[in-house]
Amino acid sequence: MHPYRSHHCAELTPENIADTIRLSGWVHRKRDHGGVVFIDLRDHYGLTQCVVDSTDPAFPAVETVRNESVITVTGTVRARSEETVNTALPTGGIEVHIDELMIQSAADTLPIQVNSDEDSGEDIRLRYRYLDLRRQRPHDNIMLRSRIIQSIRQRMLAQDFTEFQTPILTASSPEGARDFLVPARMHPGKFYALPQAPQQFKQLIMVSGFDKYFQIAPCFRDEDSRADRSPGEFYQLDLEMSFVEQADVFAAVEPVVRGVFEEFSDKKIDEDFVHIPFDEAMLKYGSDKPDLRVPFEISDVTDIFTGSDFAIFAKSIEKGAVVRAVPGPKCGSRAIADRMNSWAQGEGAPGMGYIIFGDGEARGPVAKALGAEKSEEIKTRLGLSDGDAAFFACAPAGEAASLAGRARLRIGAEQGLIDNSLFKFCWIVDFPMFELDETTGKVEFSHNPFSMPQGGLDALNNQDPLTIKAWQYDLVCNGIELSSGAIRNHLPDVMYRAFDIAGYGPEVVDEQFSGMINAFKFGAPPHGGIAPGIDRMVMLIADEPNIREVTLFPMNGKAEDLMMGAPSEVDDAALRELHIRKLLPKKPA
What we know:
Elements: E1 20-32, E2 36-42, E3 47-53, H1 59-64, E4 70-79, E5 94-105, H2 122-127, H3 129-132, H4 136-158, E6 162-163, E7 180-183, E8 191-194, H5 199-207, E9 212-221, E10 232-242, H6 246-264, E11 268-269, E12 274-277, H7 278-285, E13 299-300, H8 302-305, H9 311-318, E14 322-328, H10 334-346, E15 353-358, E16 361-363, H11 365-370, H12 372-382, E17 389-395, H13 397-414, E18 422-423, E19 425-429, E20 434-436, E21 443-445, H14 456-462, E22 472-477, E23 480-487, H15 492-501, H16 506-512, H17 514-520, E24 527-530, H18 534-542, H19 572-577
Parallel strand pairs: 3-5, 6-9, 11-18, 12-19
Antiparallel strand pairs: 1-2, 1-4, 2-3, 4-5, 7-8, 9-10, 10-24, 13-14, 14-17, 15-16, 15-17, 19-22, 20-21, 22-23, 23-24
């Protein structure tokens, strides 16, 4: 017999009754029933109940062993009595009578409870992540992640994509977030950067003559943490295709994403990946990451308030503001209206105007100032009924959209209108190529500077830059951005002109993107791609609220690895070898 195990802890069934077997694992739980001690033995696969009584030679060792100690038991499989069968376990029909017990590794007093769902707090969980991962939910999440990645890989290979690995040490480039820099010992004063994404490399793969590439790519960005974003590093399904249009990328990605969600989730999946232009998304949902499960849309009602007797809004409109109206199904009470107004103030807005509809009339200060006819027009335009309400955000377009969008999500959640058993996907398309920095008045790239502008060079030369759309797209699910992608700019003259509009001369392009611009001068195919986030897909499928719950060894919100003690200081000798001197910020007095 193998020195550690003949079976794993989810393998034994009534067919093994009377067999002599050996199991190894962790002591999940120990129960003393007065002369009879039960041990639930746990390994990666599951649990098996083991039992010993006071007359057995192994009894003294069983009495002293602590939870989470690693043990090996040798014993005989017995049937459980009918009243003690545990139908929730694959091994619930049997138990193992312990003949021999060997302690492989004794556990100290535990800082967290492994056999409990009790949350010990994030800092403790991350400091002792190896213990936290022994718990069922985190363990299952990580195994789910592994299976999802394998499924994605198989689905990509089935579509004739080829898997490549791109460099981790590369050049720094301005791609929207801060780089993690690595000092180059052999080149004093110079630094490598960890890639924010394999963007340039995957485009160069297409220029190199390969047709369809993918990888499960690690990406590194020095940015703040949030619930759906890990600080430091994350993984994405990175892919690129030659000789494609936008629709071809969608056709390649949709079956992969839909298939993975169907394979690993019991939730319903809306088959229709609807296409929503960016401008429409901002108007109807107040966000370019709309949650389509909320069953109502925002409306523009600026025209109704223009020149009206509701002076606060009317005067703001004269100064360039807009008014967005958010339907409030079942919100027709003063208490809800006041709560929404207080919430808006907590969000940094002056408040939210409202109209309450009931008993055939419109109530509230806004309704009184507008009059019955205009109030009724709002009711009709928003598709409201008695018992409902309308809420209003009046501000410059971007601010009004943002507040209305957040209000839409809040109302949907508070009124129980969001179907949590459903995944609804959409493509956000026709992103603006450029935007105006309101502080500097400078025209900047809105998103990816490597996107092909719709209309190409002619649009760049002859259109107002702020009206140019890009062949750029995002994939969104339930209000979470899963992916960004684009049809790429593969023409040197178009690339030079696009960067020129954003204030970067040809020398900047030649210096910062030399590898790509030089490659384009030797014949580049039209190409495009996308990069769905692995972590976010797993988070949605696992129905976890925080991305750290589906990451093997995550950092905390301050980008610290409490388990390994990173980031850490290094000694002066190592810094001298790298030609680096520490210049720390002064401590506040």
